[in-house]
């Protein structure tokens, strides 16, 4: 079950589409559920399926296809760093090395205290501002360098 | 600058102002005038399409398809619903212009989409926004609210009796959804797997209804063209390559960023605008249109102008105008390894040649980069690529092959050196 605030948000999404096309709101519904719960547990996926009148497997297909849904628990701060070509040329390797040393984890890992998860991302469509780190899927931190990345991480505590 | 005078800042002029994204800034400088005129005069759709054809506006999403021609494919007398869809799923490495249109000039896109909706007889429009730019998804929705409150969207727009509305759809991390039919599947609430074409979206699109899909920059250029006429837009650029274009310049330049210049501007001038190669180093290579188009040697690029025809003649594509600059410190094997990983990671898995082939290419380049390459690997790479090309439902497969074949064509010696010496020749 989701909060009334989350349900109101999902209803606003449903209203964007024709009345017989509720399924179009599945991506937003999953996002909204993930924001509330931290990750997409099987119960959340089932809830979204029931709410939108979809087979659970169809919702699971969507949740597992798109990269930003978390089907397993993540840390309180999920950090996704784009390592694609433009960011690579603009120095992301040094930024990643700094983050990994500071947090003591590699890509795809979570710190033992459950505070940080580090993920490797693909192009955010924001390369001119790279290197970049996406915080909890929704906030983009731009123009990171080996020098300012410490301050960025401290700011998250 | 403003929309009142036909200057070359077609999509980026609002950046001269303090509140570039606000409705007030947009309307104070000629925004929504084109729409008002069209609605007041009930301009026939044919006339609007004719101006687009004269303008030689070509799709800014990568393929460069003439926009006026695309709009003319929509069935005129269809009884049911039709849709206009905007593609802001900008995720092609090196491309970051559409995000800035949403950030700094959201209303020009809204006006362009409303004019498209009117011309094509659509009941509604959707803008599909790339997952990682949630902040722009929210800000574009705020711009829609502003437009709705001003009577520019919804029922009886500006007293014309015409109803039309726009909505934002947020992606959540899948490059392939930039492909137009994968994007439609995604709006329908499914996995983003491209559809077979034909049927094309103009006959079977969103929810099976006639649909036109255009890139953000394409649609945002429409109000300018309607305001000043197709000829004025054409005159900004060169024949068959109308208008200005936003070039996203990234990589080894002093000032990565977006630069809107006339089509046909020399590459050397664009490079200069971005501050030149960082640290005054030597220009080694340029990918002129986003990661999917063939790389060109720096010396070749310095002779070219930035337009579809000039870049195509040199063996690459203008694509989305995403210029990735590499200086002489770049190891081409390492760069290609990263690109190959991207296509492997983002293949939707539907077509075997792409799903398996992108993995093969990545693994072979990976082992070359890591000193385990074999002499026969370069031929193997060429043949895997050849076996993907033209054998897939969508163009992602070809997009994965373009970099591999072109890196091998222009920088083969670096790959051979890696295989033979088990290390990089750059800096060696
Ligand atoms: C793998 C792949 C990714 C694409 N990504 C985008 C994209 O991010 N934005 C875009 O506008 N077009 C993208 N396209 C092109 C679209 O399919 C389509 O041609 C375009 O949106 C049409 O708009 P236009 O005619 O205004 O350029 C992509 C195509 C492929 C094959
Ligand atoms: S390559 Fe990193 S945001 Fe595009």
Per DSSP E runs of 2 or more residues, the count of β-strands of chain A stands at 5
Number of helices of chain B: 17
Poorly predicted runs of chain B: none
Helix and strand sequence of chain B: HHHHEHHEHEHEHHEEEHEEHEHEHHHH
Task: Measure the end-to-end span of chain A.
Answer: 30 Å
Helix/strand class of chain B: alpha/beta
Name the chain pair with the biggest interface and residue counts per chain: A-B, 46 and 56 residues
Number of strands of chain B: 11
Gross morphology of chain A is elongated
Strand content of chain B: 5-15%
Average predicted confidence as pLDDT of chain A: 97
Rg of chain B (C-alpha, Å): 22 Å
* Strand order in space, largest sheet of chain B: 6-5-11-8-9
How far apart the termini of chain B lie comes to: 50 Å
Low-confidence stretches of chain A: none
Helix proportion of chain B? 40-55%
Description:
The complex is a heterodimer of chains A (157) and B (428). Chain A has 7 helices and 5 strands. Chain A has 157 residues and is α+β, with helices and mostly antiparallel strands. The mean pLDDT of chain A is 97. Chain A has helices spanning 4-14, 26-37, 42-52, 56-65, 85-89, 92-103, 149-155, and strands at 77-82, 109-110, 116-121, 133-135, 139-141. A 5-stranded mixed β-sheet of chain A has the order 2-3-1-4-5, with helices on one face. Helix content of chain A is 43%, strand content 13%. The two termini of chain A are 30 Å apart. In chain A, helix 2 runs antiparallel to helix 3. Chain B has 428 residues and is of the alpha/beta class. Chain B has helices at residues 23-28, 33-41, 45-55, 67-72, 97-104, 106-120, 134-149, 180-187, 216-228, 230-236, 267-273, 298-301, 308-313, 332-346, 352-369, 377-388, 396-421; strands at 83-88, 124-129, 165-170, 211-215, 244-251, 257-262, 265-266, 283-287, 296-297, 305-306, 322-327. Chain B has a 5-stranded mixed β-sheet with strand order 6-5-11-8-9, with helices on both faces. A 4-stranded parallel β-sheet of chain B has the order 3-2-1-4, sandwiched between helices. In chain B, a hairpin with an 8-residue loop joins strand 8 (283-287) and strand 9 (296-297). In chain B, 57% of the residues are buried. The chains are: A alpha+beta (157), B alpha/beta (428). The interface between A and B is large, with 46 and 56 residues. The structure holds flavin mononucleotide (FMN) and FE2/S2 (inorganic) cluster.
